[in-house]
Design goal:
Length: 141
Amino acid sequence: VAGSGPSSWDWGSRHGLKLCHPFGRQSAFLGYFFNRGPFAIAGGWTTVAPAGFAVRPLDKTDYLEVTHGASERMIYDVLHPDQSLVAIPAGISGRFMSPHYDDQIDNYLKVRYRPSYLSLAKVKEHALYRMQLLPAKIDSE
């Protein structure tokens, strides 16, 4: 909460990001399972890591919930594509029971990045999973 002078002010205590899944947006019960946050977050409308909020009159207890921001942060090295970096706000899985549903939140909030390999060789070298799509077999009658 804001104090009496600038040295005691804390933007994160008044400004936060809540990640809401469509199922958890309208239901507090489903929100318990699907939503994440709120998390204190840096940024504003005009920062490199945007985290905008609704403009409205404030009192001492008001909290500014982030309404828009970067859905992905990318730093691509065009000379060395395999040295590129990426950060996303939640995780790569849409299944809330998956370990990858929310495993990137901390990195996103702390503005830390993960490698983003672009060459086929590097992708294969660092792949944890592989999905093979095969055509359906159609029985002839």
